[in-house]
């Protein structure tokens, strides 16, 4: 399986002193473009498109490659992978989500539409600008997400989140730590789950039992992503 290329390797050039500064600059630019093309081709296999990148030449963002210092210069390409990584994971969750049909299912596609993205615990718009964060979390807010994860859907006998986490780890494991987990979520952005959790916990007798039931009710399958 193809994997994402973080393009973090360093290449040092040793050239003849007889070459002019302009010739050394041209050679460095040529090799840099070749390495960039290789990384772009590899990443396209994984993402289905070439991710955007930032070009830094001797500390100058967007400077021409040929302007590199011919003796002690440095060319750096930084791929913007976070947005593409998260979009890929979300796309796979949608693809693997079971979708019921009416009238058996009163809300066809509700589970598929209920994947939420959080950055450092705050829900964000997955289609907007992705902010930098220490940790990203994708979670489903429907109460029956746990049943689906346990294989209670004929369309997803192996679950959804654990399957997608494994696929993502194989592709992006060299740039991010990706794992399937169960997490408790607050009422922020998940009122339907919150209301359901409180209502079902209140049915348990005794405050301690109520608390345990409530904590169980708000724990949902999730994919936790931390960039390396």
Count of individual beta strands: 8
Number of domains: 2
Shape type:
elongated
H/E element string?
HEEEHEEEHHEHHE
Unreliable residue runs:
187-191
- Portion in strands: 15-25%
The major β-sheet equals: 5 strands, antiparallel
Spatial gap, N to C terminus: 20 Å
Average pLDDT, all residues: 82
Q: Classify the secondary structure makeup into a structural class.
A: alpha+beta
Helix content: 25-40%
Q: How would you describe this protein?
A:
By secondary structure, this protein is α+β, with helices and mostly antiparallel strands. It is built from six helices and eight strands, in the order H-E-E-E-H-E-E-E-H-H-E-H-H-E. The protein has a five-stranded antiparallel beta sheet. Helix 2 (82-96) runs antiparallel to helix 4 and helix 5 runs antiparallel to helix 6 (207-217). The longest helix is centred in the N-terminal third of the chain and has 27 residues, at 21-47. The protein is elongated and about 85 Å long. It starts with 20 loop residues before the first helix and ends with a strand.
